[in-house]
Known about the structure:
L-amino peptidase D-ALA esterase/amidase, single chain, 7-stranded mixed β-sheet, alpha+beta, 2 domains
Amino acid sequence: MDIKGFQFSAVEAAIKKPGRKDLALIFxxxxxxxxxxxxxxxxxxxxxxxSMERIASGGAQALLVNSGNAxxxxxxxxxxxxxxxxxxxxxxLGIADEAVQVSSTGVIGVxxxxxxxxxxxxxxxxxxxxxxxxxxxxAIMTTDTFPKMEARTGQAGGISYTVAxxxxxxxxxxxxxxxxxxxxxSDAAVExxxxxxxxxxxxxxxxxxxxxxxxxxxxxxxLIMVNGMAGNSPITAGSPESAVFEKLLxxxxxxxxxxxxxxxxxxxxxxxxxxxxxxHNADAKRAALAIANSSLVKTAFFGQDAxxxxxxxxxxxxxxxxxxxxLSLSFNDVCMAKNGIFAGGDSEARGTEILxxxxxTVCVDxxxxxxxxxxxxxxxxxxxxxxNADYRT
Length: 393
């Protein structure tokens, strides 16, 4: 992957336990345009609070991230640690403290072993000359079973650039954001206002359109840095290059979001929930999320039970405007119910065959308007309970 002006490093700091790299650094050789989206949980981790404060400047040059400890619900000491560790990075790199973003993921309520991070810092900075983005993707994993990466290339004014991203997340996934971290980098030059507008729009249709279990983390962060090192003229809103950049950004984020759902803790199914015919898009998304978050629906997916009534029930309590006599539902192209009534015939058997597939689509037509939404989810298995029962041990 050819992306100019970024360096990467990951080392073992034994933050939770030894045996794996768990402390990582992304560094842009020049100051980068940056923006981010964070969890809307009222309980926010210290690194989220610090990064929210710093990202307001519209720039960043480095990101320090760890796994194994969320540095959440750690009181004033959590903020002290976040500031102290980011200061160490800034000092080593010769940049301002405010140019360092901080991110953490792992167990909530445990104080960060700051001395281990300090001890690992020299090796972390020295490793920037030889590290890769793959190293970062692996270092930020917690219950993930595989590292999540994606990259796309484009051109602006005849000059090639790259948009690349990594993510972590497998459980506690819920929109606004999703437990996920995602970091996007590009060597394109992009006008700041367009970058933020485009980024927030793409996050809404990707990371804010996935759910595994309906839980929302204290640490969710999605951050983008673009450093302009490709050498193109800045991409601005409405320019011919803007649609290309936004498409590439969307493709990268949606791929990462889908990888998170497919890696849902204990997941055996990847399900696209598509709602049409709502009064407006917001209603469609309410209905889609109600379906995607329903434990009864998700366990039916796991059991390969074509229990379409559970889906109608979820739509009914979603808060979306509904006339049950207009509701229709299909699994892929198999109609299960039309105008609120079971389709009959061999629908049950055909629907069950669809649910035996690893991936399928649930299509609900509310029949009241033109609102649409698509959400991605997984099933709920025995393994999910096992993983989350033992997470801290």
